[in-house]
């Protein structure tokens, strides 16, 4: 069994959160890294004994590297993914896949042309309770899926942000960053193409100039509907609805109310960028503590004809016709193992991934449709968006 | 101070639920009743010492009666309300106001022409936490209201029903019966006209042939949005989100899972009608126990710029920028006191009611827009519906 030699493009917070899963996978070896920060590269070389590259193209030219994991800011995903695929590397790229449907289509086309694997993740669509929920729905034992209700109220907009994270034209705001999760979750659960999106997305805070909240009604081609609501300006914390477990699967203390807003109020713009940077690899960022529960993306209820399924970070509550039953899910050994497994299985065993380029493209079309619908105050069908892009 | 002499039209379950508030109000006296069931009339005469009328018109011709409370099946509301107004009576009519926008417009016009008071209620728009929440929003101290999230998952469709309650053409299904509540709640909280409705309403159960679930995105003229979700087929019970308090303000035992479906499975169609009838006045129905909490209509979260407000049957949780604070609300002395007060104040003190004919008409236009939007798969503006009806 040959291990996959994986190069890392971008040693930021995303890499930190995925690192435990990368280290644990028996068939993956970290083989090199590219980042703009020499300190992060030095730390990478020291910790993993493999080279840090100051130029991405030097990493891509390294013939010992089979595949890359791209965890850079959203606006770089497209060019870096296409360059890597053309260099013959398989690619795992963080969500959102890119910042436009056209870019996503070009990435999917590059994967096809190169014959290399492209997986978009991690996202909460990989969460174990989502995978199990989708299996239960697809089994048909509860009848047809009719409605998915997804809510998430977070302090996303009040956490330290880089400038581009608050600039929609550069993939900022919660639609690209957070709706990409919620749409991945409901698409996987329902298992039907999204036929129409009617949404509101808005900026409620002039000091954080991007869409920070949305609500969207998604109609699926098979007749199901999903209602998605997200506020990144929230004061209410919907983690109370999932047993006070944080998005990353950690216990959460409700007494730490308003911490993000309090911290942000003390920071200058420069401080804010530094606070964000301090959480990255090689700059003081630390590996996440082992999480006792699975990651999650808020309250998710799947209404089928003969049961409702409530997805929790600890399992699935199945509310059936006669009885309710909790299906526990074993705690994760490390977070985000599923995305690394899906990627490794695709590259090493040629198993077709769920979250391939077409999947990411379709999710991005939904995000774009969400923003268009809000602007037009009308339904937008996301499917022609991908066709117009040549897919 | 002269007491208002109130005639009751329809001694069903609605009357039972409102009776404690009628009995407690110092300026209201029950003065007569009309019902099709002689037993109910006899019981009324015995209990209140006032006549039961076998014909509605005889009641309306009684000059000692100032006002009537109409609590009959939905399809009779329009003709009975208009007849009562033309007979010079003030009218309190149960929600839904009627079963078509045209009927509601005719009722509002009849009230205007007669110079009599018309109030539509009770509905959960009268709930004390909704009134207080609307005051907090209107105060502006939390900035603009941006988003209301309203969820209710109930077993409405599995409770014993009369035939017309499962026939949409006769005002059956959850849109007329339940969306009328949820729309009343969010309209009062937001305080802006509804400019557009995009919705899905569907029948998921061929044995209960009416719309039993919906989800709707409401856009308000002032820029706010509300997302309303209701399932009357639910297995999940959203009363868990409000501290296991029932819609009627009673403590709820989660261990009694699935009771409505189990009972219904044992009933023939004839049994089902009898089970429904058994809950009415004069047929074994009993007064509700004193409720320790306010009535409510599920999970309701109001997102303003600087706070989220969560409405509970015990008070309002205010999630502010720096702190969260629970504003307790005194328990009700009797349920539904607010609607009786609003009606009595309007009749006796000429205080303009909030929930007048125009209010009820606008809510019905939203219900109709909800059904139309679901059929057309497009936005429907409810305002022209009322204009087309001459309002």
From TrEMBL, chains A, B:
Top-level taxon in the UniProt lineage: Bacteria
Domain Gfo/Idh/MocA-like oxidoreductase N-terminal: 5-121
Domain GFO/IDH/MocA-like oxidoreductase positions: 132-238
MF-aspect GO terms: nucleotide binding
Record InterPro entries: Gfo/Idh/MocA-like_OxRdtase_N, Gfo/Idh/MocA_Oxidoreductases, GFO_IDH_MocA-like_dom, NAD(P)-bd_dom_sf
SUPFAM superfamilies per record: Glyceraldehyde-3-phosphate dehydrogenase-like, C-terminal domain, NAD(P)-binding Rossmann-fold domains
Pfam families: GFO_IDH_MocA, GFO_IDH_MocA_C3
Name of the protein in question: 4,5-dihydroxyphthalate dehydrogenase
Organism of this sequence: Novosphingobium lindaniclasticum LE124
Source lineage: Bacteria, Pseudomonadati, Pseudomonadota, Alphaproteobacteria, Sphingomonadales
